[in-house]
Amino acid sequence: MTLVEEAGAAARAVPQLPKRLEPLAIAAVRNAAMAAFVWAGRGDGKAADGAATEAMREALGHAHVLGNVVIGEGEKDNAPMLYNGEKVGEGDDVSFDIAVDPVEGTDLCAAGQAGALTTIAFAGAGNMWSPGPALYMDKLVVEAAARDAIDLRDEPERVLKRVSAALGKRPRDMVVVVLDKPRHVELITRLRACGARVQTPTAGDVAGALLAALPGTGVDLLMGCGGTPEGAMAACAVKCVGGGMQTRLAPQREPEAEAIAAAGLSTTEILEVEDLVKGDAMFAATAITGGTLGLNAPRRSGGWNLTHSLIVRPGSVRRIVESRPVTDQE
After folding, report:
1. From CA 243, how far away is CA 96, in angstroms rounded?
2. CA 139/CA 313 separation, integer angstroms
3. Helix or strand or coil: residue 2?
4. Pick from 14, 111, 187, 212: most CB atoms within 10 A?
């Protein structure tokens, strides 16, 4: 077998994403967003999460092939979840992997604040990395032009300088997203000392990752520690647009560190996009409260429900406004 033949055989050995799954992804996030929107601003994030989860599960049940939930959001926050290993759809053999976060930004949704989304990602069967007991990871995300400039082993000042150079900017012209968490106080101070403008949302590092990976959003870099489910999900979108991403497990409490060690996972290994998701991938999101990724919150007009969604596929980013008649149950 020639090298070319070997390469082709290796590529074929990676299970690919089944065709015609885009409508399923859109239905799953749209239905979940409408269910969560009912609870937006009512102060009950768990109720929003539960409603969105059940709506997403019901939509996924109509898949024409069998899917496996590899990453089910909820365990980290003790929230309702599509559980890891849950099978959805029809068929005898698993055809695709699923990562879900029925409500990204639960507290934002509960408070009726901008930035809450419902998100889902698909990959071919066995192609999506599973974090096991790991709940948190360090992350760097940039657009394609700077993907060779990031290294999690570097100091943040050096990362900022290298990425700014790759983008043809000065460090003081850079915009960096870092979650507003106590663990990031020093990081934010150091980045601002370099002259960078730091955006500090209280939640939403999936949205932050997409803003950093997509050119022309006004965000140049995502940096800091966030959830592993969000990291793996974001990797699907980052891969589709050719962006750069590096992650490393970063347990925040001793029980998590012990569980990671018991599972034989490394806290020093750097994971790239290709380690997190192999083959083709797909990502979809629908706004619950609007205000991020150029998406508007759901609204009702003349007996119709309008939703605003984002679908990311290899080389393609589209925003979709969808109208559905209001039902008796809504």
Report:
1. 23
2. 22
3. coil
4. 212
92, amino acid identity: D
SS3 92: coil
Query: Which tokens go with 36?
Result: 């969560």
Cα 258 from Cα 168, distance rounded (Å): 43
Q: In order of start, what are the domains of the chain with their CATH numbers? A: 3-128+281-325 (3.30.540.10), 136-276 (3.40.190.90)
pTM attached to this predicted model: 0.90
Structure tokens of 17? 């994403």
Q: For residue 266, which phi and psi values (nearest 5 degrees)?
A: -100, 140
Beta strands in 91-209 (DSSP E): 94-104, 117-124, 136-142, 175-177, 197-199
**Own/partner pairs for 156-161, CB < 8 Å, 24+ apart?**
156/187, 156/190, 156/191, 156/223, 157/190, 157/191, 157/194, 159/221, 159/223, 160/191, 160/194, 160/196, 160/221, 161/194
Q: State the DSSP H helix or E strand holding residue 190, giving kind and residue range, or none if neither.
A: helix 185-193
Instruction: Give the containing element (helix H, strand E) for 71.
Output: strand 66-72
The SS3 call for residue 137 is: strand
List the pLDDT tens digit at each of the 330 positions of the chain. Answer: 443 344 344 444 567 888 889 999 999 999 999 999 999 999 999 999 999 999 999 999 999 999 999 988 545 444 456 888 889 999 999 999 999 999 999 999 999 999 999 999 999 999 999 988 999 999 999 999 999 999 999 999 999 999 999 999 999 999 999 999 999 999 999 999 999 999 999 998 999 999 999 999 999 999 999 999 899 999 999 999 999 999 999 999 999 999 999 999 999 999 999 999 999 999 999 999 999 999 999 998 878 889 999 999 998 999 999 988 877 555
Helices 228-240 and 205-213 pack at an angle, to 10 degrees, of 20
H or E element that contains 234: helix 228-240
